[in-house]
Amino acid sequence: MVKKLRIDWFLFAIAAGLALFGVLMVYSASAMIALNETEGASQFTYFYKQLGFTVFGLFVMYLTSRIDYRLYQNKTVVYGILAVTIVLLISVFGFGAINGAKRWIRLPGISFQPSEIAKIALPIFLAYFLTKNEKTVSDLKETVLPCIGVLVILGGLIFAEPDLGTTIVLCAIFVSIYFAAGAKILHLASVGALMLFGGVCALIFAPWRVARLIAFLDPCAEENRAGAGYQVCQSLYAIGSGGILGEGFAKGQQKLFYLPYPHSDFIFSVVGEELGLFGTMAIVLAFGLLLWRGTRTALLAPDRFGMLLSIGIITGIIVQALFNISVVISILPAKGIPLPFISYGGSSIVLTLFAVGILLNVSQYAGASSKEKDLTESPVRRRKNRIGLK
Amino acid sequence: MRRQAKKTKKKNPMQTAFTRFMLIVAFFILWIGGIGVRLVHLQINQHEALRDKALNQRRDQIKSKQLRGTIYDRNNRPLAMSVKVKSLYADPREIEDVEAAAKQVAGVLKVKPNEILKNLKEAKEHGKRFVWLARKLDENAVDKINEELEDRNLRKFDLPRSPGLYWREEQKRSYPYQTLAAQIIGFSNADDIGSAGIEQSQESNLHGAVIKGWQDRDRHGRVYDESDETEEREPPKDVVLTVSHSIQYKVEQALAAGVKSSNSKSGMAVVLDPKTGEILALANYPTFDPNRYTEFSVENYVNRAIHDNYSPGSIFKIVTYSGAVNENLINADAEIHFASKTIDVAGHRFSDHHSRSSMSYKDAMAVSSNVSAIRTALGLGKEKFFEYVQKFGFGKPTGIELPAEANGIVRPPRVWQGDSLASMSIGYEIGVSALQMASAFATIANDGVRVQPRIIKEIRQADGTVFSATEPQPTQVVTAETARDVRSMLRQVVVAGTGKRAQLNGYTSAGKTGTAWKFNAKTKRVDSSKYVSSFIGMAPADNPSVVIAVVMDEPRGGARDGGQVSAPVFREIAEQILPEMNIIPDSNIQQETLTAEQIPSETESLVPPVNENILGWSEAENQVAGEQNSANQTAGTAQTVQPVKEANNGAPLKENKAPVESDKKGVKEKPKPKATAQTSEKPKAETKNKSSGERAKQKT
């Protein structure tokens, strides 16, 4: 019945294109920082690392796309991944802080962020659990509380790093999967209220977040420019400077230490300055296409597990991307979060591509379904076709 | 139907998932749309505003100035030059603890912290980015500050490595010879704008253009890009003066010594090359140091030798005699007979000190006979006399390349009074500058050819090529024969007359003394206690290479005549500079030691009337810069006061004259000078004389 066909090469191309573009932008954004850190010896240190991780990540993505996603629909695998993730997240606290945050596991020669794994572990767990408990999705004891429990453990650990950005992404993944899986609106609203409460608490216990929140309203105002609004204000300078056509690749000047983290959290600003509206729109469009192909994959997935997993993965990537861009262009309060595919960071690029690999594997069935008419009758059949032809 | 559909939906989890996920996707699409709108707004609508802000925070506008041109003496010694210096400024926004910073900086600069603190605080409150802390420091001071303010923990790449402190390159004007030629050179102010002297008159040549540029700095302050200064700017030019620094130095030394020994208020000296019109030296005393000009009185800035008018007195007789000789009315060796020691013109009595009944014009010049000069002028006539006055360059600026030159005061004949011709012939009712007077002597020295005096030899471009050189336009004022004849008269002054003290060792010299009383503006009366005493001479006498004018203002010593106070300065100068100029000595005369008594006193032969009209007139018509001075000095002339004049201006002046010995023995003399010298005017004038009682005075 279900016959394998080819993976969604369009999706593959978008992901690979974004990742390779990211390598170039990382070079442009980090060259001066590299020079500064190596005291003039090399401007390529970040570039080489990113290039290596990206090539590795693409390889991983391809391999993953060859692994049947249903392999993950297995109790041992799911809980194993979950357990490993939690252990890693806890072990983060054994390592030193960078910029006041404990996000990295640093071993000789390699360091990585377990929170990136959580972004994959959570959708796998939820997809598995909500598929298994399909009949009792709305049952508080059976399903809702265990799911929330996992979210609280993962999100709580990450929040404690602290990494509010990733926590928010996890929450978004949770909400979208659970929502799609058929959660009661009441439950979701409760969770939403709880999150809101948590957010308020976060603000109360971390006053600097309040300053950031207020600063986001007018980052370049006199009182914010040098303080809480500094990062975003510099980001706006960069993006605005680019205009329509941009200053040209590698010709941006805001990255000369005016822009904070130009190669990671604020790499989109560098794109805006150097490649202008064309560049920024192209990236937004690319994520839009990714959303389309991801949605298509999810909707045409052959089973509930594949669908929920795809929804979780694509939501995670898109939310993170839109959130990052929104911060950088100051329509959301500043929150450190990397731009998927493009920002510098080995864990981020490898695991994002790994996630896309899973998505690609699911997408094979979408390809099959759109070409073959002999699928099982399904109430969404007609619409499936329409979307497939988009 | 709908209910049915809803039911189906609810019942089918896949359908629910589909619908719900589409809601999520729709939310994402809305979000993407919002991002797109925002991006368009930022990158199109706000593009320029944001770009400017970004530019503003990384770019420093830099104004640098080309180094101001150099002023050289004729031997290429720099008299004024600009050097690069550094000034310390602060960006108060980068300084957190203003008080500590002020203390620290003040400690290194060795000044009190209060003012620095005040400036910093004020600037910080107003959000200024720029405050001067110390300006125009030399290299040592800069090094010291860099060293002492170094903060090794600071990530700052330019010196001084201290938060918020920066250097800015500026230039400083330096006058290496300090007071030398101060009034010629002038000075330029703190903004490098020439404010006096050559610095002012040649501002357009010396001025260094402002070059605007920019530097882009990264956030750590490192410059990573700057505007290339390919912009073609013509560099400032250098000015080469005709002045020789060594001659100038000697002249200044001699003048200062002369002013001190004669206890004069001030003095001035001009040394001219009569053949080229080049000014070799031009000195004023007291003087000032242009490096520290603010510490001196503004009066000292004035180049009195070109700016002040004074009544020259007898020294002006050179014009009278030159005119007459040139018109063939007299010659140096012709005899003049005196019937009397006095001459009355238009009711004024002029008198002489000597009591000889006849002498040559040469001797008349030597003893500075007023009667002789007046009779000569009367013979020449108003119009002719006026013509020669003008030809010799009086009444208008010489055109020297210095600011604020006086016109002098020369009234046209139509406004003259009856006795004006007589007064003018002996140097009253006229205002001249020392330079004008020196130029007249230079004309005689140069065989009657007047060469406009000049102080700029050439203007040079930065690459050393001559941009412009002054080409003097000579004019023949009197014939060469006339000039030689007059020189022989001037020679006699030195040999046997009032200028004996101007005799040189090894060189022949010629010249004329002048002693005039000054007019007191307050009392509107001549002040018998205030003189302007001058001597202008040339050497060697036969073929003069140099003309030297020395003018002393208000000598207050015992002897106050030009022959006593100024002639020795002339001698001092001439004897030093002639060898330096490689002039071969033409005489072995050794000047004997003279006592004052041996020299005919010129003071005694002063007899001008006080014509107060000249004061009223000079206020109305005089256009020269130093109006007050010219008024004072022009009018400040005579010893004798004519009651007749009282009617004109109501200021009774009778009482102010010097001790008078009514000299009734003054006999009306028969005019019988050179046969040719008779004019109809003279008898007329004489008939009028004596009608009013006046006193001739004798005073020493």
Question: Overview of this structure, please?
Answer:
The complex is a heterodimer of chains A (390) and B (700). With 390 residues, chain A is mainly α. Chain A has helices at residues 9-37, 45-65, 75-91, 114-132, 140-159, 164-180, 185-205, 207-217, 222-225, 230-242, 267-299, 304-328, 346-371, 381-388; strands spanning 105-107, 110-112. Chain A has a two-stranded antiparallel ribbon. In chain A, strand 1 (105-107) and strand 2 form a beta hairpin. In chain A, helix 12 (304-328) crosses helix 13 (346-371). The longest helix of chain A has 33 residues, at 267-299. Residues 370-390 of chain A have low confidence and may be disordered. Residues 1-10 and 604-700 of chain B have low confidence and may be disordered. Among the domains of chain B are: 61-241, Penicillin-binding protein 2a (Domain 2) (Alpha-Beta Complex); 262-281 and 305-446 and 476-605, Beta-lactamase. In chain B, a hairpin with a 5-residue loop joins strand 2 (71-72) and strand 3. The chains are: A mainly alpha (390), B alpha+beta (700). Chains A and B meet through helix 6, helix 10, helix 11 and helix 12 of A and helix 2 and helix 3 of B.
CATH superfamily caption of the domain at 262-281 and 305-446 and 476-605 in chain B: DD-peptidase/beta-lactamase superfamily
- Which architecture of the domain at 262-281 and 305-446 and 476-605 in chain B does the CATH hierarchy give at level 2? 3-Layer(aba) Sandwich
Q: Quaternary state, please? A: heterodimer
How does the major sheet of chain A shape up? 2 strands, antiparallel
How many beta-strand segments of chain A? 2
Question: Which strand order do you get reading across the main beta sheet of chain A?
Answer: 1-2
Indicate the percent of residues in helices of chain A.
55-70%
Number of strands of chain B: 21
Structural class from helices and strands of chain A?
Answer: mainly alpha
Helix and strand pattern of chain A: HHHEEHHHHHHHHHHH
Instruction: Please report which band the strand proportion of chain A falls in: under 5%, 5-15%, 15-25%, 25-35%, 35-45% or over 45%.
Output: under 5%
Strand content of chain B: 15-25%
- Quick check: average pLDDT of chain B? 79
